[in-house]
Amino acid sequence: MEGEVSTRLIIFLFLFYPAALHAKIGPVTWESLVDGSEIVALVKIKNIEVVDDGHGTTKVIIVDLLKGSQSSNEINVSWHLSTVSSALYDIHGYHLLFLKKTGDGKYKQSVIGRSFWKLYGRNRENLTISLETKDPRLSTIIELPSEFYKIESVPVRNCTIGYIDSRIVSYKKLKEYFNQ
After folding, report:
1. Which domain holds residue 96?
2. Would 19 be classed as within a structural domain?
């Protein structure tokens, strides 16, 4: 009888477990993203080391340090790939990172899923990111200061909606914001 009850309990739990797979990450304020970051930096990826499935370390070159201090222009960033977090792997172009230091001297995301921004543009002065269309997790960042983004209607790929209003963050204006 006791074994039958525990078997039923296990089956019951498995039936409801998939609901957690569809959970969404909650919003995070701009202030908590920045305040929780020891370093905010524009970087280029130097190399990537995959430790095992879903875990790795990316060595990045700091191109522009917006917040914090760092003695070296190269740092190691640990990442864990999951449904709410991304890997730092795209070797092309620039990334804006929001990082905090770990106990082993490496850095990690200051806020899971919202700390690695892939920027787009032909040169550093024209780098931008569309928060609502390039990475859906970034759309959960709220209370952004209006001085470094504008709202544009942008096409949505692979969707019948057509266009969506998106916050387009300008790296140039973001840099000015951090230099104030």
Report:
1. 25-179
2. no
Q: State how far the Cα of 127 lies from the Cα of 120, in Å rounded to an integer.
A: 5
Distance in angstroms (rounded) separating the CA atoms of residues 9 and 42: 50
> What confidence tens digit (pLDDT) does each residue in 122-142 have?
888 899 998 887 777 888 899
Q: Is the pLDDT confidence value at 66 over 90?
A: yes
> Is 37 a domain residue?
yes
- How many structural domains is the chain composed of? 1
Q: Burial level of 48, CB count in 10 A (0-12/13-18/19+)? A: middle
In a domain, 5, yes or no: no
pTM above 0.85, yes or no: no
Give residue 85's pLDDT band: very low, low, confident or very high (50, 70, 90).
confident
> Tokens representing 119?
């920027």
The tokens for 96 are: 């804006």
| 160, burial (CB in 10 Å: exposed 0-12, middle 13-18, buried 19+) | exposed
Q: Quick one: pLDDT at residue 83? A: 66
In a domain, 47, yes or no: yes
Nearest to 136 by CA among 109, 166, 108, 96: 166
Of the candidates 179, 169, 139, the residue with the CA atom closest to the CA atom of residue 27: 139
